[in-house]
Amino acid sequence: MGRIAIHMNEPPANKDSLIKELLIGFCLGTANIIPGVSGGTFLLIFNIYKRVFLILGNINKANVVLFFLMLISLVREPGKKFMEPFIGFLAKNDFIFLFKLIIGAVAAILCLSSLMKYLIINQFTMTYALFFGLIFISIVIPVKMLTKKKYWMLFFILAGAFSTIYVSVAVNPYDKVKMKSDIYQKLYLKQTPGQDISVQTLIGQDADRQAMDESKQKQTSSLKLLSFSGKYTVDEYLYAGICGVISISAMVLPGISGSLVMILMGEYFEVVSAISALKTLNLDAIFFLGCFAIGIVFGGLFFARLINMVLNRYYNATMAFLIGLMVGSLYALWPFKKSIVMARQFIKKDGAIDFIENVRVYTNINVVPRDKTQILISLLAFLVGCIIMFFFIRKENQN
Q: What letter does residue 364 receive in the DSSP assignment?
């Protein structure tokens, strides 16, 4: 595959049907929520990579101001007078096509977030083995995109690999969970001074909660709507925005996965959990994802131009660095991790401090598996991941 030029100015040659464009967006959303499957790769598969970058290039200060001025005029005076110019403006810049992709992608992410959360919590090893297979085969994509192979590229490959390994070692999921649990435990003790929090007491409290009648459960579930519990700190909101900026830069690059970047930064499960919580209209999740979305918007607008410049000036060095990132990420995605069972994890739920017992939390420490059944299941999941990615690469080559 040759060099990608993303500075073309000609309009798209044809217009796809509404259903087809929504399905393409759904596939893009699916790709971006599954680590290892690159959204940029799907843009190439559907032959819309250049078109999407052309649209992003049209999102400038002048067009943004004009968009809001026309929108305000349309709201004040609905009708053909302002509707037709507004539709013409959107069509001229191909924004309608972009909106269809976004709608399809959002639908996919909302549909799959609960599934991904369930798999990570209940089938961690098998899920990571699948991710490992996806990434393992997808390394071929940036390798094939090299226009020449020189020894000096090894420096950038090693730099990329070192970067991902360093990040995955530095960001320990268990430390993050333990630190947050300790903070909530202190708050719990302040709210209930002198109360025993031994295992026996907590088990008794848990039994009392399970004995709640159905009417009270319905009342509690109704209170969850538009509830704000202060689950996230200011630092977590800011970090979500930073992750949005960095992950979108990976989402638009062929061969690199935005979800993989979020795993390396320790934010993948938080984002998936927040998306899953949207069904209850939880304000914590809405604000958290709002910060993440703001990061995506600003990162997307900035990196669309930066990537264009970097690929044109330092194409092979960039591709070599991407190869290194993906090779190093295999360390982070090794499916067999040391796990620690927390006897009590304190959490914030429905505006109050609560706790759950015997929670298994996976660390970033890789271990050698001993359970033969677990090895066999993981191997099968790995092979499934390899087959899926092989199919996508073959499809991309055909285009």
A: E
Q: Tokens at residue 170, please?
A: 């530095």
3-class secondary structure, 123: coil
Query: What is the pLDDT at residue 158?
Result: 94
Share of the chain above pLDDT 70, in %: 79
pTM over 0.85: no
What's the chain's length in residues?
Answer: 399
Give residues with Cβ within 8 angstroms of 95, minimum separation 6: 55, 58, 89
Q: How many whole angstroms separate alpha carbon 15 and alpha carbon 271? A: 34
- Domain spans, the chain: 18-186+227-398
* Helix or strand run (H / E) with residue 344: strand 337-349
Model pLDDT for residues 92-109, shown as the tens digit of each residue = 888 889 899 989 988 988
Contacts of 282 (CB under 8 A, 6+ apart): 224, 226, 227, 228
SS3 content of the chain, % helix, strand, coil (to 5): 70, 5, 20
SS3 241: helix
pLDDT in tens, 166-175: 878 887 778 8
Query: For 84-120, b where at least 16 C-beta lie within 10 A, e where not — what string?
Result: eebeeebeebbbebbebbebbbeebbeebbbebbebb
CA 380 to chain centre: 25
- Written as six digits, the tokens of 181 are 């649990």
- Asked whether 235 and 357 are in contact (CB, 8 A), the reply is no
User: Cβ atoms within 10 A of the Cβ of 40, count?
Assistant: 24
| Contact criterion met (CB below 8 Å) for 262 and 309 | no
Q: Which of 373, 24, 314 is nearest to 146 (CA)?
A: 314
Say which residue the tokens 């191997």 belong to.
379
What is the per-residue DSSP string for 74-114?
HHHS-SHHHHHHHHHHHHHTTHHHHHHHHHHHHHHHHHHHH
- Measured from the Cβ of residue 349, the count of other Cβ atoms closer than 10 Å reads 15
Instruction: Fill in the amino acid letter for 223.
Output: L
Q: Which amino acid is at 118?
A: Y
SS3 346: strand
Of the candidates 107, 103, 74, the one whose C-alpha atom is nearest the C-alpha of residue 89 is 74
Q: Which of 397, 379, 345 is nearest to 133 (CA)?
A: 379
Helix (H, G, I), strand (E, B) or coil at 268: helix
SS3 389: helix
